[in-house]
Amino acid sequence: MSNAIEPIPGTSDIFPDECRLWQRLEDTARAVFSRYGYGEIRSPVMERTEVFQRTIGDDTDIVQKEMYTFTDRGGRSLTLRPEGTAGIMRAIACAGLATRDQWRLYYFGPMFRGERPAAGRKRQFHQIGAECVGGVAPEIDAECIAMLMDFLQSMGITGTTLLLNSRGVAADREVVARTYSSYFSGHIDSLCADCRRRLAANVWRILDCKNESCQNAIAAAPPMTELLGEDSKAYFARVCGALATLGIPYRIESRLVRGLDYYAHTVFEVVHPRAGAQSSIAGGGRYEFTFPGMKTPMPGVGFAAGVERLLLVQQDDGQANAPTPVTDVYIVSLGAEALNANLGLAAELRRAGLVVLMDLESRGMKAQMRSANKYGARYAVIRGDNELQRQVVMGKDMATAAQSELPIATAVDELRALIQKRQQANVPLTQ
Ligand code: HAM
């Protein structure tokens, strides 16, 4: 096939069988998140570039190398959202933070990053995320993490590890940055070219480097939690205490900074050994956003999980069998008049809540019965001109091949009752 009609590398077409798995994730997320008082937000997939640039951080990989940025016809620089948080904070800033005590929002949708495609790493990928905006308390962070773990558990995803750290508050930054600058200056020979540049530009980003050559120096760097001020340490201790109360196991990963610069205080990631080279299936933390013209920063905490990675892990756990679609009735028509009358019968059966397919191409009986089989129909309803005249339909139980005639006046009710009975008792229709 010509390359011209293949999807762009790192993007995918998702057909109904796979979509059913996506919908199950989304339905579970809706059910779990709404129990914590969250409501859905749908925000634009494009934003002005500044919305992401300064908030995610000029020195991050996302802003430096991965954003899909273009100039529109009006000369504006726009960016396809590489993540959900910045756009949602922009939306809340527009709506007015103070119009609610707390904004508890969740979202699903595509995000765009120009990364090298691999298993579980796409250029258009999809996140299920949540943000709790407006309040600051360690217990809010813990509850948010609990909601993520609750969601993963409800999806039957096991074998995860929750990694936890604190980046402290703005006041701690200078001390921490100074300590790391002096430490990494002493290890400059083992750092990659990017990290040598980061040493001067933004030393925090060295801790997030995935380059093999930098790993030894990073692993031996001073633990961040020990460098923080007393207030930040106390805040982090309360997050850990609340997680313990909630019975949520975690591992402190004292060099975890995450790939975005907006975090303050708690940061976390959920990793799974089978999530591809990246290993993280979800990540998040507490943050502060200040948009131009704002006097005080807007605080929040949230997370996002990658749908493609959740599915990868789920499939590996054998949890992800797509529920097979059910066709209750396949209508077989013989003759033009019967076909016309059967259009009405199909509409009536659908109004009665049944899943109905029918042949609309006037094919032969054999071809229509083959389709009934192919679609896994529970019941075939056959009506030709003869049945039409006698005001009956022929019903065929596809599992047992038993046939019976049903008067048209009661056929819809009878079929519905038989199918309900079969659904409840899982018995063949003609019994
Ligand atoms: P993130 O860690 O950049 O955080 O992304 C969250 C999740 O999105 C990752 O754990 C991963 O599952 C998925 N993901 C990221 N990049 C890709 C990719 N190229 N292909 C497939 N999946 C990917 C954020 O985006 C933050 N906005 C999370 C957050 C919300 N923090 C606070 N609130």
**What portion of residues is helical?**
40-55%
Oligomeric nature of the chains: single chain
User: Which residues form runs of ≥5 with pLDDT under 50?
Assistant: none
Number of helices: 16
Please give the order of strands in the largest beta sheet: 1-5-6-11-10-9-7-8
The average pLDDT value, as a whole number, equals: 93
Q: Which structural class do the helices and strands define?
A: alpha+beta
Strand content: 15-25%
Question: Which ions and ligands are bound to the chains?
Answer: histidyl-adenosine monophosphate
> Mind describing the biggest β-sheet?
8 strands, mixed
End-to-end Cα distance, whole Å, is 50 Å
Calculate Rg over CA atoms. 28 Å
By DSSP, the count of extended strands is 16
Shape: elongated
Structural description of this entry:
With 431 residues, the chain is an alpha+beta fold. Helices cover 41% and strands 23% of the residues. The chain has 16 helices and 16 strands. Helix 5 runs parallel beside helix 11 (230-245). It is elongated and about 95 Å long. The two termini are 50 Å apart. The model has no long low-confidence stretch (mean pLDDT 93). Bound molecules: histidyl-adenosine monophosphate. Histidyl-adenosine monophosphate binds at residues 83-85, 113, 115, 120-122, 125, 127, 129, 131, 259-260, 280-285, 287, 302-306, 308-309.
Layout of strands and helices, then pairs:
Layout: H1 16-35, E1 39-40, E2 46-48, H2 49-56, H3 61-66, E3 68-71, E4 77-80, H4 85-95, E5 103-112, E6 124-133, H5 138-154, E7 161-166, H6 170-185, H7 193-201, H8 204-207, H9 215-219, H10 224-227, H11 230-245, E8 251-252, E9 263-271, E10 280-289, E11 298-306, H12 307-316, E12 327-334, H13 336-351, E13 356-358, H14 365-374, E14 377-384, H15 385-390, E15 392-397, E16 403-407, H16 408-425
